[in-house]
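Possible regression after last week's pipeline update?

I re-ran a chain I had predicted before the update to compare outputs. Posting the input and the new output here so someone can diff against the archived version. Not blocking, just want to make sure nothing changed silently.
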Amino acid sequence: MIEGKKLVIVLPAYNAELTLRKTYAEIPFDIVDEVVLVDDNSSDRTVAVGHELGISHIIKHDKNRGYGGNQKSCYNKALELGADIVIMLHPDYQYTPKLIPSMAWLIANNVYQVVLGSRTLGKGALHGGMPLYKYVFNRALTFFENVMLRQKLAEYHTGYRAFSREILQRIDYQINSEDFVFDNQMLSQIIYLGYEIAEITCPTRYFEEASSINFRRSVVYGLGVLKVSVVHRLCKWGLMKREMYKPLN
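New output (post-update):
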């Protein structure tokens, strides 16, 4: 626990056999209470490695649901386990687990309800090997989102995220996409309800085994992000209504 609050790490996995051990080895178990591994119907030994590591909460999807669908299972299980703080960490070793204490502390001490590990807050992205086209794509989308959502975030596209229990129980993430745009829909919902988001500079690693989407899927994702941003602004102006922005409690 951290400040008396239960901390659960969720690992949304897909073909993470080669990197899961490295990721798991750096998790600070002096403050982490539980680890949840959700395997999105991988074709490798991700689940077997999870069992070898002694991860007690492993969920394997019978079919590939997508990145958003994987996260839904992650957060559902974390809430079921009584988590006060949930941190999503990709098991592909692209993000360092060593930031977990810093991210959790901000939530545990009621400074923020949401914390992002930002790759572009500083020079971590390019130094870590992020392809230039992805960096430019990231920066352009972030600029557009900041304008439409009236924010000043360094990045909306990181996969390193920490949430309080309150956030996960208040937003209807179940209604969101099962694909990659799920991440942006969640942030849009959180911002719509008036929560502030903290960011921590996060180094990153790009290497052969790290997960990444191809150019075509990046374009599809980008178009989805643009749509989420426009819908968010139209709803704020009262020109449109969407169920996703209704708080659950």
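Follow-up from reviewer: compared with the archived run. The chain has one domain: 7-245. Marking as no regression found.
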